[in-house]
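Subject: two folds for Thursday's group meeting

Dear M.,

Sorry for the delay on this. The cluster queue was jammed most of the week, so I only got both jobs back this morning. I'm pasting them in the order they finished. Each block is the input sequence followed by the predicted C-alpha cells. Could you check whether the formatting survives your parser before we put anything on slides? The first protein is the one we discussed after the seminar.
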Amino acid sequence: MAGSSAAEPSISRGNAEIGARFPLDDTEDFEDARRGFVGTAEESAVRGDDGAVWDLEAYGFLDRDCPPTANPSLWRQSRLAARHGLFEVTEGIYQVRGFDLSNMTIVEGDSGVLVIDPLISTETAAAALALYRRHRGDRPVTGVLYTHSHVDHFGGVRGVLSDEDVAAGVPVIAPEGFLEHAVSENVYAGTAMGRRAAYMYGAALPTGERGQIGAGLGQTTSTGTVTLIPPTLYVTHTGQTETVDGIPMVFQLTPGTEAPAELNIHFPDHAALCLAENATHTLHNLLTLRGAQVRNPHVWAHYLTEAIQLFAPHVDVAFASHHWPTWGRDRVLGFLSEQRDLYAYLHDQTLRMLNEGMTPLEIAEAMELPPALERAWHTHGYYGSVSHNTKAVYQHYLGWFDGNPAHLWEHPPVEAATRYVDFMGGADTVLRRARESYASGDFRWVAQVVNHVLFADPDNAEARALQADALEQLGYGSENGTWRNFYLTGALELREGPVGTPTVAASPDIMRILPLTQLLDSLAIRVDGPRSWDADLAIRFRLSDGDPVSLRLRNGVLIHIHTAGPTPGERAPDTEIALAETDLRALLLGAASLGDLAAEGRAEITGDPDTLAELFGYLSAPDPDFAIVTP
C-alpha cells in the first residue's frame, strides 16, 4: 500500500504478547475448518460482466507466519475464514465457504436441493452452486431459504433461482418481516451505510500483511450484482414446521437478535442446527460500524437460551451462515452456552455500570470479559468488539447523551477543531507535541488530537501524513477485523484521496421490489427541506390497478396517502395523473418520463403538467463518497 510503513516497536511488542497470552498453537478450529473438505473451484477468480467480483486466492499470504503488522489473533481468524471450497457438514448437508463474506448451505432433498443464504452476488452464488454440482451432480434447486434480512444472505439469489422457477412452484422461505427490513435497510440509510461499509470491509484496500487481511466474520464483501426475489412462504412462529422436497424443518424465530428478522432451523433427520448468524466464531456486533439499528443483547441471549432448550438434546452438529461448524453434542452445548453468556454478560454489566453513573467511554474502558469466556476463541472481538458493543448497549437504553450538560450543545467538528487548535497554540505546536506522542507509542492519542488539526485545516500535508501513520499503527495492532479496515482505509484516503464506495446496496432489483409506500418514503428522505419550505404542491395518482395515491409537499415534508376516499385537510390536487402502478414506479425511479408516458398513451394528465417536475426539483441526490476522515 502506497506510503505504508513498518510496525512501530510498541505495536510489534503488543502483537507479540498475544502469542504468550493465548494458545495460538490450538488446532481444534483448524481441524473443524478442514473437516469434510470435498474440493474447490478450478478458477481462482469469480467474474461478472465488469471483471472479477471475487478472488479465491487473494488471501493465500495468510498461510505464512503472522508479521508484526497484524494482530496474531486476527491473523489466525482470517486464516480460518479464508479457507474456501465445498465441505460436507453431515450426510446430505453441504456448505460452500470462502466464496463471499457468508456461506451458502445446500441441503439435499428427494429430487433437488434446498439452498440456504445465497451469498451477496449472483456471480459468487452461481459459482458456489456450480462447485456443488461438479461434485454432487446437477441437481435442481427445489427451494431457497433466507435466514435473515442482511444482503449477504439473499443478494445472490438470482444466481441460483429464476422468476420462472418461482412461478413453477419453487418456494422461497424467510422469517416474518424479512422483506420490509431487507429493503428498508438498503434504501433509507443505504447510501451512508454503503459508504461506511467501504471502510468496514476494507474493499478498497490491497490484500496483504500491511493491508486488508479479513473482516472477522468473513474476508470481505463480493462486488457483483445484488438481487432479491421476494419470499413466497413466511415463518411466523417458533415451532412452525415445513417440509421442502422431503426435507423436514423446525423453525425458531429470533427477531431482534443479529437482524430484525431472523430464524434458526433444526433439521431433525440430520440432527443438525442452522444458527443463521446468531452464534458464530466471533463476538458479533450489537451496533455494526457501518451503521444499523442497535441490537439488544438481552434478547439475543434469550433466544440462544431458547435454542438450547428446544434443540440441544437433538443436535450433533451446529453450523451457521459464516465460519465453520461445531460437531459433537457436548461441544455444541458448550458453544451455544458460551455465546449466550457472552451477550448476557455485556448487557448486564453495561447496565450495572450505567446505573453507577459511568459514561459510554468509561464503561468501554472498564469492561473485561470473564477469563473463561476470554479463553474461548469464538468470543473474541474479530467483528464486533467489547468496546463498541458496550457503547451500543448504552445507546439502546439511554441514547447518545451521557448526561453531562457540557455535551448537550457542543460545537460541530470543524468549528470545535478550529477552537481546539487555537487553544493548543496552533497547528505547528499541536503537530510537534503529537510527533512526540507518536514516538512514545501513544497512537491512540495522536489520532485523536491530530484529527482536530485536520478538521481545522484539511489541506495541512504534515497533519495528513501524521494522522495516516497513526491510523495505520492502530490498524496493525487491532484484533478486530473491521477496526483494522477502518483504520487502514482512513490512512489510505488521507494519503491517496477518496477510494469510493465499491458496493451499491440499493440495487435495481431491491428498488423494484420495494413496496410502493417504502418507495415513496425513500423519496421523502431526499426532499431538501430548506429549499422547499415555501412550496405547496399536491399531486394525485389514479392507479388503474390500485387505490389512488395522493402526494402533498408542504413545510418541506412530503406526505403520501393511499386511499380511495377523501382525506381530512386534503386540498384539490394541482395535477392528477392516471397510470398503472408499474409506470408510476418507473416514473419515481427515474426510469421513465411523464412526457413519454403520456405520448405513449400510458399516462393521462389533468391540471398542471409541470407540478411533478417541480417536486422532483426539490429532491437532493445522496453522496456515496462523502468525506469521513476529513471535513
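Second protein, same layout:
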Amino acid sequence: MSRTRHIRGSRLATAGVAAGAATLLAATLAPTAHAADRPARTTALANAASALLAHAASLGLTSAQDTSVRDVIVDADGTQHVRYDRTYRQLPVLGGDFVVHLAANGSYRSADRATRNSISLSSVTPDVAAPKAADLAVNALRAANLGEVLKGVTAKPQLVVDALHGSPRLAWRTDAVAKDSLGNPVARTVLTDARTGAQIDAWDSVETATGDGRSLYSGTVPLETTLSGSTYQLKDATRGGTYTGDAANKTDLCVLGICISRAPSTLFTDTDNHWGTGATSDRSSAAVDAQYGTDETWDYYKNVHGRNGIADDGKGSYNRVHYGNSYNNAFWDDSCFCMTYGDGDGTQLGPLVALDVAGHEMTHGVTSKTAALTYTGESGGLNEATSDIMGTLVEWYADNSSDLGDYLIGEKVVRSGFGRSALRYMDKPSKDGNSADCWSSTVGNLDVHYSSGVANHFAYLLAEGSGAKTINGVSYNSPTCDGSSVGGIGRDKLGAIWYRALTVYMTSSTNYAGARTATLSAAKDLYGAGSSEYDAVAAAWSAVDVG
C-alpha cells in the first residue's frame, strides 16, 4: 500500500546490537543519498554505530532488536545526526525510531526517541489471523466512508510491534484500499491488537506538489523543458528530471497494497515551447501550474535549506494532473514518488494545482524521508501543519505577482460553492469552522487537517506576531490563547527553525509538547539559548497553549 497525504481532509542485546552495527557499516558502501557527502556520511555512520554499542541500554536496544538507517545529516560544523528505524524479532516497530546526535569529533551527545517504552514480548505469533485483521480493516474503511458502496476493496495486513500506543504489543497494521462511486481512491490504515482483535487506531492513508507557460493561477511562468527531436517535453533536467504528465481522468488500481495498474502519466509535449493558455479548456494549463509549483518548491528547499530534492538525492519526482472525475483533492504518494492533482468539481474547488498546494504535497515527501510523523493524533496534525507551513513559505519564496504570498491555504482553488475564501487560515485556524486555534488535551482526536491548526497558528504568530495587520493586501487579526501579545521574527527564521526541528529532532510520535521541545532545540542550535529567537519560539507556543 502506498503512503499518501492529502491537501484536504477526507469526508470524509549486545551481540545483536553489534551485528546490527556491522550491517550499518557495510551499508555505507552502497550508494545512497543524504545531505552529507559520502566521506562525511561514512564517518557519521561509523561514529553512530559505535554509539549504538556504547549506549544500547539507554536506547532500549537488545539482542532481539536490529536497526536500519533512515537519514544522515552532517551540519556545517561537523555535528552529526543519524536517524534510525528499529525492528523487534524482525518485525517493524511503530514508534521505534530514534535520532542519535554526535559531536563533530564523533562523540555521543544525546538521542531523541519516538517512544521510551522497553520492548519485550512473550511471543510474536498472533492470536488473530491475518484474514480476520483484513476483514476488520475493510469494515473500518466502509464505516469511515459512511456506508458508501466501495469498489475493488482490498486489504493487506502486516504484523508489527506497536510501541506508539502505550505498552508495546503485537499488532496488525492493515492498509485497506478501494474506490468510491466516482472511481476515486479511498484508503484507511487500521491498527489492530493481534491478541484481542480490538482496534488500536485508524487513519486515512490517501492523504491527504527554457520555455514559458500560461498557468491557471500564477500567470505566465518560466519553464525548463527538454527538446527531443523536434518536440519539447515538460521535463526539467535541471531539477532531477521532474516532469508532468496527463492522468487522462483515470485512477490507480491497487490490490493487496500493490498497485497493479496506475493512472497514466503521459508526458506533456509541445511544438513551440509555449505551454497552455491559462484556461482550463487547455489541458496543458494545469500542467504548467503543477510543473511550476514543483520547480519553486525544489528551488526553495535547495536554495534556502540546502536540500537537493525531496529525498535529498538530486532525483526529481513527477506530477499527474487531471486525475479522476471531479476529484476534489491532491495527494503525495510515496510509492510512486509523485504528486497527483484532481480537477475539482468546479463548484466547490477548481483544479488543485495552485502553488501552495504543490509546496504542501512535496513537503509530505520531505516529511516521509525525515521525521515520518505518524498520520494520526497530534503527530498527524503536525504532519499536515508541516506541509501547510512549508507550502506557505514556498508561496512567499516564489514572489509571484499573480499569487502573492499569504497565510491562506489553497485560496486560489476555492470556488463560490465552497462557502469560504480558503481551505485553511493560519492566523486564526478556527475561521474554517473546524480547526483548532489552541491546544487542548482532546486536540489529537480531531481530523489531522484540523488538529494542524495549533501548529499553523504557532507558525503565523512566530513569523508575524499577534494582533491586526494587513500584509500583501490581506487582513489578518491573530489572537493568542493566553491573552498575551507576541512579536514575530519573520518568515525566514520560522522556516529555518521548523525545517531543522523536522529533520533533526522530530520523530514519528512527536506530539505538540515534543514539537515545542524540538523547535526550541532548533532555535538554540541556530541562534543560541539566550537569543530573542529562542524566546520568541517559547512565547509563540505558550500563546497557543502548548507549554
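Two things I noticed about the second structure. The first strand starts at residue 4 and ends at 6. Confidence is low (pLDDT under 50) at residues 10-36.

Cheers,
T.
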